[in-house]
Write a structure and sequence with these properties.
The complex is a heterotrimer of chains A (484), B (536) and C (314). Helices cover 28% and strands 20% of the residues of chain B. Chain B is of the alpha+beta class and 536 residues long. In chain B, the strands form 5 sheets. In chain B, strands 11, 12, 13, 14, 15, 16 and 17 form a 7-stranded mixed beta sheet that branches. A 4-stranded mixed beta sheet of chain B has the order 1-10-9-8, with helices on one face. In chain B, strands 4-5-7-6 form a 4-stranded antiparallel beta sheet, covered by helices on one side. The longest helix of chain B has 17 residues. The relative contact order of chain B is 0.18. Chain C has 314 residues and is mainly alpha-helical. Classes of the chains: A alpha+beta (484), B alpha+beta (536), C mainly alpha (314).
Chain lengths: 484, 536, 314
Amino acid sequence: MSGPGATGEAAGAAVGGAAARPIPPRALGPEDFASAPRTDAVARSSRPSLSYWKDAWIRLRRNRQATISLLIICGLVLFTVVGPALWRIDPNRPELSRISEPPRWDTRAEVLAEPPPFGETVLADVPPSLTADGAMLPSPASLELIGRATVESVRLRWAPVPGAAGYLVYRSTSRPGGDYLGLPMGEVAAGNVVSFEDAFNLEPRTYWYSVVATNGAESHAAATIEVTLTPGISLVDAKVIDPTAKPGDFVSRPLRPFGTDFLGRDVLARLMSGARVSLFIGFAAPLVYTLLGILLGGIAGYFGGKVDHWVMRFTDFVLALPFLLFMILFKVAFGSGPGESGIGPMLVAMIVLAWTGAARLTRGQVLQLREQEFVQASRLLGARPTYLILRHLLPNTLGVILVSLTFAIPSAIFAEAFLSFIGMGVAPPTASWGSMCNDGIKTFLVYPHEFLFPAAAISVTVLAFNLLGDGLRDALDPRMRSVE
Amino acid sequence: MPTRRLTLLATTALLALGPAAGCSGGGETRAPGVLRLVMSEEPPQLDSTRATDQVSNEILGHVMEGLTRYGKGGEIVPAVAESWELGEARATFHLRAEARWADGSPVTAQDFVFAWRTAVDPKTASEYAFILYPVKNAEAINQGKLPVAALGVRARDARTLEVELERPTGIFLGLTAFTTYYPVKQAFYEARPGRYAADAQDLLANGPFVLSRWIHGASLVLEKNPRYWGAAHVALERIEIPYFTQDPSTAYNLFKDGKIDLTGLDRDLVGRAQADRFRMKAFAAGSVFYAEFNHRPGKPTANYHLRKAIQLVFDAKEYVSKVIGVPGNRPGVRLIPRWVPAVGGPFWKEYPVEPVRLDLDAARRELELAKRELGGKIPALVWLTGDDPGTAREAEYFQYLFQSRLGVALKIDKQTFKQRLAKMTSGDFDLVAAGWGPDYADAMTFADLFASWNENNRGRWKNERYDVLIRNAQASIDPKTRMDAMAEAERILLEDVAVLPKSESGRVYLQSPKLTGVVRRAVGTDPDFTHARMEP
Amino acid sequence: MLAYTLKRLLAGVVTVVFIATATFAAMHAVPGDPLTSGKARSAEIRANLKARYGLDQPVLVQYGVFLKNMAKGDFGISFTQQNRSVNDIIREHFPISATLGVLSLLFATLGGIVLGSVTARFRGRWADRSTLFFVVLGISVPGFVFAALAQFGVLALNRSAGTTVLPVAGWGGFRFMLLPALTLGLGTLAFLTRLMRSSLLEIVNQDYVRTARAKGLPPWRIFLAHQLRNGILPVVTLLGPALAAITTGGFVVESVFAIPGLGRYFVQAVQQLDYTVIMGLTVFYGAFLVVMVIAVDIVYGFVDPRIRVATEEQ
């Protein structure tokens, strides 16, 4: 098609001029029956003419939500593809001294001296055994720290309680009160053993330790001590960062901008490697099954009759397979061996089961369109099937198919997340957003960062695809134009 | 989680929630003496001759009672039997006159004879038939070689039960508290062919509670059994189980909302429970968790030095603290856990074991030896595990451990329950995460696990001396002889690093402050509400 | 119409047999033995169990027996719940899943049609954009996350109210169904809203709408008689699959809200390789869905005369 230009305008004016000319009544001569001069310009519009896709692109760009979504999706792809090259942290490497650490900018940590071996304080004198009611035993006197309380170890000592057959030690993250003492850390099973070491998953924070005496029944009286732990890093761990480190020095630990997870792994790195899994499944599965669906549905709808009958019987059959059960059944039946991530079986199961929606949708549309006047007219004019399909049926189905595709990407991402939820997702140590979300939601109220980042990743992605899909749909559908 | 201790627990200790129980409080008024619980699922099998799982065994523990039961401190106390004589070849039980079925009829010796015969009958296809094998001819009957009537148990009269033993069995008394040994009333059983225990009205109770209502999949209601011989000491009027969920967080939310009175906490919930300031309690749950090495010929893990190297880089304390993350669990140092009694005190005190300490240098030396013996290179090892929550965390930890401390690659093979079992049986693994819950309160429930004939010895470890010691311990009824033999067997097992002990299970749970007198224990019905009370 | 329905039903029966075959094959392709248990069983106990469940027969014989029993409507006894027939399980739990499914579908369909109409009517305006955004935002969260957050929300609500406003979990009266049904229906609601919107927008420019407008019909009549009836078509096509998605997708909601529906049996059965339950539930659900799809097609033909003509001509 030729572009806009002066020729077009001039031709338009000429035609207009001709139409306006008054025709004087006269006898016709042979010159009146000569062919009119051909002017290609007649059909030219006065507006710049655009290709279908170019037009769609312009209209898409005018949609702010869609544009932002597109940018976000480009960003996600960058995050996934380029991210790991820039942020070179092994997503699968645990750091057990940094479990569930929230994002923290100050990474300096004091190198802690190795605590001397802990020996229980055992008194020679066994406290006299009284037949007192255990619940009435007094609280241990003079509960105190032995040495320095660090994130490596906290050691407690107390005075024996007469009549006690043992002691229970509790640890709390808030000041005990009422009958609340905290987490039961352990039991000292003798009345004359009056010390306890806690090295159980300590975080750099303040704890309240409570000790109660027992003799079968637990005493109601607790001795409590408030202990603020010195943050730091063990000598062994520090030497990995700086081989010359010695106790008392400060070393800088690697930055964890999104915090760490339940094994002390870098959440940002896992988010990147999880993106590869989630986005791969999200793109690959719907693309393949939607294409498959369009193909089968289009064939069925266009040809009708026997073809339609058999294709749709087959579709009914696949559709009748309960998706969830077969998804699990196929995934289990295809199996994944040692060291495999299990993405393959998941993908195959999804494709085998999920194409029916697109097929039915396409068929329904094609059936409807097939009966419409413009298609029938085209057919009467002798259009061939390929032309009809490519020119009329496909473009007119595209809108609805696109709506279903935009939903297919998020739903594939969700299907993966669902499988993670029931414990049949990707195999460890592979991360996916779904599995991270599922792990994170359990501790959401205590360690929100483990949940919020993957959840936000899923939500933003799904939202972006949905909004982009909406924009695309409006932009691509020719019937939408006149509405604007 | 109590009763079905017999089973190989899920793969890991990380899932520390049991069939938690629960009760209510909260915004609505409840009649006094009513306890409310949540369970992980509805009981799959309440026919005591066929029950195998924890949930069923827990419910059966509330509604049934065997010849004996466990007391508060884990000791065997009289139940339906008020006294007994136990010899090498036979045992005689004297039933108490007041023992009654919920329909008012007396519990007779014949009821035990019928139940035991039913359990070993091959037609019943009871999975737990083997637990009756100490009874004379039980094994032959179960294999179809002898008629059921040949079982060595008879009712001398209505109140005297005589048992002939296949061989001297030191643990027999403990077995009589077990589910499969519960009585079943023949007339009641036969009146509902194929339907016994299928519904509330199809189960005849003789324990502290009766099953009064059972809406499948939705709720269970147990009521106090007024005909129970000890009914005077049963304080609870009713136990309601209106919720079944496997989601620990849902159970926690129900507790917080005051809808249930008891719930277990896993690693993910201990933090919330602290933030919500609930009183927490802990107890030793009785199971042992370990990694089994595959000893089949040709497997790298059949090499002693490789196993030793793995043992030397594993720090059970670190594992319990950082990976399990629930206090109350103990670092695994041995096969026979701390709660198991020996002769006069706990087994661990009478037969102490020196824990193996983390030693990277020694591990490196062992690894070199292993490499030399295995032809220069350690291939990637396969860690077989299940799909329960927590197993992934554990597998990832071990993968890191092997990679960073040994330089050996570990491939995680995560399978669903039945597939994992299939692979365990066929030996398709190098290491497998496994665990064991006790059937009875004796070291033997653990010690015979790795005898070469035991089907649960999935790694096919074989040691002749071990086998002999276990046989000797099984054939003796002298406690000292038995314990010495088992301790020696355990020493051999640990010395050869046949398995890698990981942890001894402990559980942290929440209990409504109104609920008192609940007994939590490692073996026997847990939680036990027989003497529990619910303050208004 | 009757002949057509009968023909479809007959085809449906064939489909169900296909499903049964596919399930049987897939199930037997899963490695593992349903009769293994955590506690290893000795050879003789295994043999006893095999005989009990008929697994000592060749696979083809098992298949034949299964089909025969299925024709009689008997799915056999569960491997894990050994006192319950699969028929019992379906009879007791399906009504719960179905109640939940129908309720959430009702919510989703009505909500979808209303919101879809509103957004189409106010296309491009504030009401359209904000409704769409929230609908989309609502489905941008995985189901289990939404369910868990909803539960936290109710818990907080109950605590601040000092009484049980809504139950946290469990099954009972309507109050128990409300939150799970909303959670379950949300995804479908969003889907249907968008579908409805796009389908209505396509119709706005159809000739018959223009004609109706030209005739001077009041806008509401044009909307009800022409736009809505035609715009609803794609929604109707998707009801069958949507119901399927909702009933099977119920697992998450049933699990989080401790609802005794069928969903959990699905998942457990595969994990436990409970042959009879896998077969029974798949075939039952398959048959259910087949009937649903047929029903939807009939309704579709009823709503859209063009399709009816086309099918009857065949």
